[in-house]
Amino acid sequence: MLTYPALGFGLGLRVTHYDAILATRPAVDWFEVLTENYLVPGGRPLHYLSRIRERYPLAMHGVSLSIGGSAPLDREYLRQLKSLAQRIEPAWISDHLCWTGVAGRNTHDLLPLPYTEEALASVVERVRTVQDFLGRRILLENVSSYVAFRDSQLTEWQFLGEIATRADSLILLDVNNIYVSAVNHEFDPLEYLGAIAPERVQQIHLAGHEDHGDYLVDTHDHPVSDPVWELYANAVRRFGAVSTLIERDDHIPPLEELCAELARARTLCEGTLATAAGQGGHGAAHGGGSGAPPQLRRALRAGCSRRKRLAGGTL
Question: Is 195 in contact with 158 (CB distance < 8 Å)?
Answer without folding.
Answer: yes
